[in-house]
Design goal:
- By secondary structure, this protein is mainly α.
- Among the domains are: 43 residues, no CATH class; 65 residues.
- Helices cover 54% and strands 10% of the residues.
- The protein has three helices and five strands, in the order E-E-E-H-E-E-H-H.
- A hairpin with a 2-residue loop joins strand 4 and strand 5.
- It is elongated and about 105 Å long.
- This is Zinc finger GRF-type domain-containing protein.
Amino acid sequence: MCYSGKKACLRTSWTNNNSGRRFHGCGDVASGGGFFVWEDPPMCTRSKKIILGLLRKLNKIEEEFSEMKNKVNLLHKMEEEVAEMKKKLNFLLGCLGANGTGGFKTKLGTVGEGAGIGTGVDDLVAGLGGLKTEVDDFVASLDVVAFSSPLTVAFNLVDLLNYEM
């Protein structure tokens, strides 16, 4: 019991001179109570130095662990972003016919047929050249192009191409 009549609590000192040394102190921490008795005997100088060194190392390891944990979390986020980008890339390559599935189809025919990325892209470029010619012919054949709004012409072109994915 302390002087204030409250139960004394067992605590641990973390000061440089008494790191890890236990003591009994007043249960009323706010008032301090004035009661203080060491539970453990005093440590030798060597023990104090060793404990302080170990505490510094522990703090450094805890900081490094926290940094590594943050880096791992960041790495997981980056892996998720890469996976999402791969999905988008595979979708785009599929649309371009780079996966060897035959390209994509329009009302004007298949564009981008090929057996691989190089062939598929080459075929796509060649197909787009032919497609551009046919689109130019289509636009030239419209009697009312000069009197149509750009939006109407755009809708007609979209209808002509009508991509099927």
